[in-house]
Amino acid sequence: MESLRTSDFDYILPLELIAQRPSPVRDESRLMILDRKTGDIKHRTFRDLTDFLSPNDILVLNDTWVIPARIYGKKATGGKIEILLLRRIMDDAWEALVHGKVGVGTKLIFGDGKLEGEIIEKTEAGSRVINFKYKGNFWNLLSELGETPLPPYIKEKNQESGRYQTIYAKKKGASAAPTAGLHFTEKLLKRINDKGVKTTFVTLHTGLATFRPVKEEFIKDHHMHKEYFEVSEEAAKLINEAKEKGGKVIAVGTTTVRVLETANDGKKVTPDRGDTELFIYPGYQFKIVDGIVTNFHFPQSTLLMLISAFTDRQNIFKAYEEAVKEKYRFYSFGDAMLIL
C-alpha cells in the first residue's frame, strides 16, 4: 500500500450532483448500503437506517458545534482581511487561516475594535496563530461578528447556514460540520433507541485536517493537521460494553472513526482528550469501528482514503460509480452511505 498515489483516488463527478442545499427533511436523504466484504449495494432512504442496525449495536456520533468561524476585518495599517478559525490552542490564542498578506506582529481589527488580534506565529502548515483581545464574552462577539463557514461550492450561503449543524451539536469548536450527522432527526434517533440500539457521543472539532487537500504524490507522505478530540468515561464504557455483548460499533462520520481509532488500547476504547493526527488509508487495520455512516466525498481526499481503507478500494469506486449513475447528491449537503 506504500505505493498508493493520490491520483489513485480520483474519480469524475458531474458538477450538477454537488448538492447546493440539504434535503427538505433531514432523514429523507438517500442512503446507499455497501457490504464491505462482498461489495453488494442496496438503495434506501436514510430513515431506513434502523433496518440495518441490531440490538446491542451502538451508534457513535460527533457532538461538535460549528462556530461562526469566518470573520472579516482589517489590518491596523489598512487593508481588508478574512480569517477562518481552525482550533483554539490555549486561552485566547487560535490557529486560523488568513486570507491576505500578514506577518508575525500584524495587528488585526474586527467589528470597529470590538475584537482585536495579533499574529504571533506562522505554522509549518501555512496557517497563523492569532492572539485575541476583547471585552466581554468571546463567544457572544463571535456570534455577532462571524459567519458560518459553509464550503465554497455551496452558493446559497445565507439560506442554508442554519442546516449546517447537527441536531445534537453541543460542544463549540468546529470550523466545518461533521456532515454524516446532518441526516439525523430526533424521531429517527428515538426509533434507533427503541430498537435496542444505544447511542453515545464523542467530540472532534472538525478543522483543517478534514478538508485540507492532499498535495503529495504518494499518500503516505501526507501529514494530517491536528484536530482536538474528547472521549468521556461514559462513552468509552458504553462502547466497550456493546463490543463485549457482540454488538457492532457504528461510527457516524469519518471524524468519529478517527476519534475511536485514536482513543483505544488496541482492543478497547479508552477515555482520552487531546489532539489527533491519525491518517487512515488503505492498509490500516481497524481496531474499534465495525461500520461507518458517511457522505460521498471529494476525489483525492483523506476522507475517501479512509473509507477505502475500511473496505476494498475497488468496492468504494464501484459504489461511487453507482452513485453517479443513480444521481445521488454529493458532499456536505448530499446523500449518505452505510458501510457494514
Describe how the helices and strands are arranged:
Elements (H helix, E strand, L loop, with lengths): L29 E5 L6 E5 L12 E5 L1 E3 L3 E6 L4 E11 L2 E7 L7 E4 L4 E8 L5 E7 L3 H8 E2 L9 H4 L10 E4 L11 H9 L3 E7 L3 H4 L15 E5 L1 H12 L4 E4 L1 H9 L9 E5 L14 E5 L6 H9 L2 H13 L10 E4 L1
Parallel strand pairs: 1-18, 3-13, 3-15, 4-12, 15-17
Antiparallel strand pairs: 1-2, 5-6, 5-8, 5-11, 6-7, 7-10, 8-9, 9-10, 13-14, 14-16, 17-18
Attribute tags:
six-stranded antiparallel β-barrel; QueA-like; 340 residues; Thrombin, subunit H; 29% strand; nine-stranded mixed β-sheet; alpha+beta
Low-confidence stretches: none
Helical proportion?
Answer: 10-25%
How many structural domains can be distinguished in the coordinates?
A: 2
Structural class of the secondary structure composition? alpha+beta
Describe this protein's structure.
The chain is of the alpha+beta class and 340 residues long. The chain has two domains: 6-66 and 161-339, QueA-like, CATH 3.40.1780.10; 70-147, QueA-like (Thrombin, subunit H, Beta Barrel). It is 20% helix and 29% strand. The chain has eight helices and 18 strands. It has helices at 138-145, 157-160, 186-194, 208-211, 233-244, 254-262, 302-310, 313-325, and strands at residues 30-34, 41-45, 58-62, 64-66, 70-75, 80-90, 93-99, 107-110, 115-122, 128-134, 146-147, 171-174, 198-204, 227-231, 249-252, 272-276, 291-295, 336-339. A nine-stranded mixed β-sheet has the order 2-1-18-17-15-3-13-14-16. It has a six-stranded antiparallel β-barrel with strand order 5-6-7-10-9-8. Strands 4-12 form a two-stranded parallel ribbon. Strand 1 (30-34) and strand 2 (41-45) form a beta hairpin. Helix 7 (302-310) crosses helix 8 (313-325). The longest helix has 13 residues, at 313-325. It is globular. The mean pLDDT is 95.
